[in-house]
Amino acid sequence: MRSVRLCVLSSGSGGNCLWIEAGGTRALIDAGLPLRETARRCARAGISLRDVTDVLLTHEHADHAHGAGILARKLGVRVHATRGTMRALRDPPPEELRFAVRAGVPLQLGQLRVVPVAIPHDAWEPVAYVFDDGSVRAAIVTDLGCAPPPVVRALQGLDALVLEMNHDLRMLLEGPYPWSLKQRVRSDRGHLSNAQGGKLLAQVVHAGLRHLVLAHLSEHNNTLRHARREAERVLTRFGSSASLAIASQARPLDPVALEPLVPAVPLRRARQLALFA
Fold this sequence. Notes:
Distance between the termini: 22 Å
Structural class: alpha/beta
CATH topology: Metallo-beta-lactamase, Chain A
Number of helices: 10
Radius of gyration: 19 Å
Largest sheet: 7 strands, mixed
Strand order of the largest sheet: 6-5-4-3-2-1-14
Strand content: 15-25%
Number of domains: 1
CATH class: Alpha Beta
Shape: globular
CATH superfamily: Ribonuclease Z/Hydroxyacylglutathione hydrolase-like
Order of helices and strands: EEEHEHHEHEEEEEHEHHHEHEEH
Helix content: 25-40%
Oligomer: single chain
CATH architecture: 4-Layer Sandwich
């Protein structure tokens, strides 16, 4: 049976990287860690960095794109990003390994269909990504200051969601950041607060959502307890049985295998089939 495997290797302002695997496609979403550390995180999660075929960048900020160029040069992997992101990279991959993506235009990587989704963030053409292998559907959406209707629509019907809950608003306002940075973080082109992440979750949660990962938590302006409480409040409100995990800056999460759901055969139909067994 086919399955899609997800593993958040790192999440936070110190570096972001997620592994997704479907069939022969093994891709990293963002490459914000040094090469050696990325390899170490992969090994710790039971996967090999040398198996990576593609890197998909959400935007050009160093904590998401720092390692893309060296990954391409060392391992020959293809790097996919919007034209704006690619132009803004400080260390771009070799030209022959650069592949442009456009928001709303699907990209086929083996059996994995990838749809970039435009998001509001203070970067050049940033995107989130939705993945679909024909049986399961997953998405990673971080580094956005708000969730306009097109983003909400793109995140419907997911089996797994990696969702930003960057900060607790009160902690941000009372915390150590200068006022200009506080304004940037809480702007519509900044980062989602726990409350905003919870609102977005409430708009996309459904009975088929099986896995939820909270991501990009601020080290200074959030706590695991604050973020978890907000997510659990929404899941409880909608009666969701989705598993809940919180991505770490320091260590990878355990890989998650998303197996296709097999629809239950109605009892009457099952009895009819048994007659011909």
